[in-house]
Amino acid sequence: MFLKECWKRRVCFGKGGRSILEKIIKQLRSPEKLPAVVVGFDGYVDSILRVCRQTGGAGPEFFDTMEEFGNYIRGKAWKSCSLELKLQTEKVGGNAPIFSQTISHLGAQVSCIGAFGTPQLHPIFRELEKACTLYSISGPGFCEALEFRDGKVMLARNDCMKVDYNTLVEKISVPNLLKMANQVDMLAFFNWSELPGATSIWQGCLRDIFPRLGERKRLLVDLSDCSQRSEQEVREAGGLIREFAGYLDVVLSLNQNEAEALAKSLKLPLKENADLAAMLRERLACEMVVIHLLDRAYCASEKEVVCHVGRQIQKPLLSTGGGDNFNAGFAFALLQGMMPEEALAVANGVSGFYVSHGRSPDREELAAWLEENFTEKSIEQKGKICYEIA
After folding, report:
1. What is the pLDDT of residue 41?
2. The pTM is what?
3. What are the structural domains, with CATH classification, of the chain?
């Protein structure tokens, strides 16, 4: 009955699209006290690369789509091949650092715990250090990201990251971790899937930190791509998230692949994304579950499921980090007191700006982007109006 009711009530902005946009813009431009966040626990040096299909006097011609690249590779089976890579940029990588960088641009005060280099920071993180307070507990991982118009292939080397609970409390004591958690408005845990020690960190926080919090906090969780984790491991992570909900208001953010992997591990049926978000929220006792796609996002809360349709950027300048920018926009909007449907619009706006410009916006740039791109164009979903950013 709950899922049926959610389906009936699913709405993207309802009929007051412009007035809600005005409310978002007003909130973005308000001088209210800036929120504070503690974020963890990964860190990468990202090399953004394009794959050359041909090189020559006229300059390189790149593979446009993942499908095109995949078909080429398939055709070279038993033959081998050689391909040239063109470095587009080298940048701060990892879910926690990119999220931290983005939400700090929006005005949040950020403490980021992660793998940034020891005993000294890797030079790539020096710029991040200007925006956030960094606590480095390990050397960084390294990622070669092959970018295509319709997605990216992340080739990661994680063995340099020695991130687990023992390392964490050696670098930052339990009393100091508890003090940090009590002083902020939100906690954010990222990239469980690529950090073998992430489960130990989650278990340690459940044992030593969360039961001793002075007041109930929000916790944003993003598992990241679970495809290299076993179904049993994903199910155990889901169980820990449910335990988190005993102490914190958990906001779980997933892309479609992650949502389906989590649902499969929990033996839930794979349904349409609105229903899937609602089922995961109910099973894991979360405050909210978000499922974000390239052109839209869904948020299930106890009250309803809302959807926001955004503009899919046809020729992204940079897609690596788009999901982290989405998460930062969503988190910042919640910290500013916005409703889920408003937070989805902000999140899509931050992500859209990022993939279009190759960098994250500040609040004024985000407000201008939303004002420029928000239209009254609408689509019907089960009798409700969904306003687009298009």
Report:
1. 96
2. 0.86
3. 2-389 (3.40.1190.20)
